[in-house]
Amino acid sequence: MTGTLAHIWRHPIKSHGRESLDHVTLAAGETLPGDRLWAVAHDASKADGSAWVPCVNFTRAAKVGSLTAIRSTLDEESGRIALTHPELPPLEFDPATEGQRMIDWVGPLMPADRARSVRLVQVPGRGMTDTPFPSISLLNSATNQALSEAIGIDLSPERWRGNLLIDGLDPWAEWDWIGRSLRLGEAVLKVEARITRCNATKANPATGETDADTLGTLNATWGHQDFGIYVTVAESGRIALGDRLELI
User: Fold this and answer.
1) I need a labelling partner for 225 at 20 to 30 A (CA). Which of 7, 76, 89, 175 fits?
2) What secondary structure does DSSP assign to the chain, as a single string?
3) pTM of the predicted model, to two decimals?
């Protein structure tokens, strides 16, 4: 089994934007650099930045689908983040000192009946992924194509908010990798678990509008609502677009 790395994405602020990368260096035991560096805590959150907490503590695309249309760019040197959305003016800000500017900016997208976003938080040393362990999410483009055909819509793989997209595999081949190791570029990854999906995947990442019953189609066609896998970094190394993925 071999495949090719087709896309790398990171999400500097959890549920609030994504950006594409050509390459990145992964570190053993860590999340993808710059991914989910920050998360937006709501007014019922228990997050205080001292430790990882579950995603229910944050403003999420699962509850506010329009957030999926945000795109972001992280300046690694300064830490500043630039955000765009088709319904909002561009914003550039420092999340460490100007978090309120970002919360005010995204305010027009927030439903009145949802918990109110109040602050940005981060946990030193790890990204705020959905898992208690420092995960990276890996997607199979052939599985995305199989679901597209089943649902009758050409689904962008960005809908899944993943980190790595692999071309050249059979649909659902990734289900056979749980507990196995993968070599990708210079890095070695361990496959930990399948990803169970939420309502965020129903929203079009270009517009933020709900346009596809991804969960219903997964359940009706395959008997589950899982898509993609969580991996952890077992051995550090650089990965780049075009790198080969193989089971080891």
Assistant:
1) 7
2) -EEEEEEEEE-SBTTS--EEESEEEE-TTSPPTTTT-BEEEETT----SSS---GGGB--TTT-GGGGG-EEEE-TTT--EEEEETTEEEEEE-TTT-HHHHHHHHGGGS-TTSPPEEEEE-BTTB---SSSS--EEEEEHHHHHHHHHHHTS---GGGG--SEEEES--TTGGGGGTT-EEEETTEEEEEEEEEEP-GGGGB-TTT--B---HHHHHHHHHSS-EEEEEEEEEE-EEEETT-EEEE-
3) 0.96
The class of domain 2-247 in CATH terms is: mainly beta
- pLDDT bucket at 205, cuts 50 / 70 / 90: very high
Per-residue model confidence (pLDDT) at position 29: 97
Given a cut of 90, whether residue 115 has pLDDT beyond it is no
User: What would the two tokens of residue 141 be?
Assistant: 């483009």
Task: Return the closest-CA partner of residue 13 out of 87, 84, 77.
Answer: 84
- CA torsion angle for 185, 190, 192, 196 (degrees, to 10)? 0
